[in-house]
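name: query_chain
kind: protein
chains: 1
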Amino acid sequence: MKIRLAADLQPDSIVDGEGIRTVVWTQGCPHNCPGCHNPGTHDFNGGALIDVEDVIEELKTIENQDGITLSGGDPVCQSEACSMIAKAAHEMGLNVWCYTGFTYEMMLQNEKHRKLLENVDVLVDGKFILEEKSYDLYFKGSRNQRIIDVKKSLEEKQVVLVEKYKDEKDNSNHYEKPSYMFV
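structure:
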């Protein structure tokens, strides 16, 4: 099976989920959210087709990572391939985050999307909404998006948010430049 990727795997990310992560940048997104920080990933014909097995083999060579993040583009548009990668990541002892413009509830209604959910630990769902944009949020771009504990949500048959990321960041300790000058 092949997957269309927007870029090479990106190891050592600290902004695309908790811990140190390797990002799998998928190509193709139907949402075209105004203000998207990855508009180059929207074209479904862009990027490059790669064998899923090659992606998995490359993941095996990357050291000192806590997990992988499926981003893009929208990974849900390539659910089967992303599910295979996520399953392999779990077998390597890595956790899996996934960013999507679809909602958790929408994903539950599609068999292939649900299979992807079953291989994801944390889902950041919902379209990016420019009017809801904030730099004070953990691991998401706009306030409407949710950071969902997928395993608990599937077990409890309702959305369970990751508790520690529900609130906004406490930015009360802003860095201030020293008042002295070097001459």
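note: The chain has one domain: 2-165.
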